[in-house]
Predict the structure of histidine kinase.
Amino acid sequence: MARERIVIGLNGSDDAELLIRRAARILERTDGGELVAVHVRTTGGTAGESPQVLEAQRRLVNDLGGTYHTVSATDPARALLDYARKSSATHIVVGQSRRGPLAGVLAGLFAGGTVEARVVRGAGDVDVQVVPRVPPQRNAPRRRPDLGRTRVAIGFALAAALPALLQLLLAAFDHSVATAVLIQLAGAVAVALVGGLWPAVVGALWSSLLVNYFSTPPLGDLAISDPQDLLSLAVFVGVSVAVAGVVDGSARRSKEAARAQAEAATLGDLALGASRSEDTLDGILAEALDVFGATGAGVYSSREGTAQGSGRMSGPAGVRGADGRIWSLVAGAGDTAGWEHGVTGLPGSTGLPGSTAEPVDADTWLVLFGREVPAMESRLLGAFAVHVKAQLERRQLAVSRREVLRLAEGNSMRTAILRAVSHDLRTPLAGIKLAAGGLLQRTVTYTPAEERELLETIDECTDRLDQLVGNLLDMSRITADSVRPLLGPVRWNDVIAPALRGLPDGTVRVELPANMPTVEADPVLLDRVIANIVENAVKYAPGSGITITGASDGMGAATLDGYPSGELRIIDHGAGVPAGKVLEMFQPFQRLDDRAQATGVGLGLAVADGFVRAMGGTLTAQETPGGGLTMVIRLALSTGSPGARHAAGQPRQEAT
């Protein structure tokens, strides 16, 4: 059995949801099929289309599992039938025409009937369902394209002056009534070209009076003696009004076409930017300032639910409307000062003069400050609102993606930690268990040297176990983003000595320049960073000579977020690390050349890098001249007060 395919004919009106849901109900009664919405765009209906309505229709069709298509045609009935035949449709759903009785009669005489009637006649074996439409609202008549107040005013002035000037020209020579009528008709056409229909009508009436008084016998009298002259004047007025109407319509269509061309160019730029992933929300608002000539633009969203009570809330909390919803600024460009006093169009607002609000969705609005956008530009503003909605959805998707990645990384880290606990911690635990069990054996007698060796084994395994557990816990905190450093002025010398505690003398040489400036760091975390890096160098470059030094002036060549930085270098002369594995070296559970697990679980550098980043610094690896590896720690120079740098740019974090 062939699958049902239902084609829905849409014309961009706001009641298309009724047609879409009716088609979906028809499809539900079958064994499955395909839903296809076709928006037939005509030159006469384009101006009344709303981008938000079209976007809502497209989303509804997609949510119902259908597809949305747009075609352009001069004959919507023929275009819909052609598409239905091409797609092998089994049903066509169209809406009933909203035309009045007189318009329906005229359509039957000159166009072969209404659109739905022609679809029914031409559908053949395709089932057609005509859905009654919701009656249109009478309080929102369609606006004719405006020629501008200045142009219309000039037209009225010309309608008053030009007929009189032409009549003065006629007075200079003998002329007939027909000549006077033709010359005044040319003047009426000129008035219509400049000011449109109504100035031309006024000019035609004024011209008829002048011709009647000065050119129609008896002269100097409004009475007309010859019936033919009366007919000539009547024809003159009728032709003048008709020609003026045609010229006015042509002028308005020309202006509307120029405006549509400018809108198309603007929408093309927006679409091009979106395809290149350059169409950020701030970029859209900045372009809206240029296109509409506004002083500021902002996107405002209400929080979920309603607030208790009423009244206005200012500041970071946003504005509480009279309906209880709280509105907050999501993004802005230009001058948005004073938006908290209320914005025209926002639910529950008091209104801010000189602003325009356009709904993005039920809880989000696009607001322009400094200009009230006229109705003729509302379609373009609606297109900007659609792009704003797309960018907000892109932001939400990016946030969701980052959250998913963070959760995935956390799961991977937990798996790795469990693997490390189940394998890498067994060695020190086994050593402690074996040594302690041997000492507890009463049937075995140990020499003092053997007892000391067993106790040293317990001590060594305990230290190693403490280090492994500490690194695992630190890595868990870094992965969970729960490291909160207590930043303050720290001298390098104050943290290097504790970090090297426990190492044999001579293992590391400290050659710091005198009077190195203090850096902004957490001394406990910085101690752990240096200890982990030194331990890693001792482990992988034993006996090569390890040196801790700093820049000659104690300051790094690079800056951190615009702040001068201090620099510490830990240098070894071992085998070094291949350039292709430098980035891998900072990943958790990585060991150089896949060394045995007896060297550790591979967390030392990952923990050090996480702690340095938490303190706002960087940890990088460089090749040591002559062979080896140099680890470079850069931290911002301290300003002298605890957490001053963080206080200037972000809230200071407490230690944990």
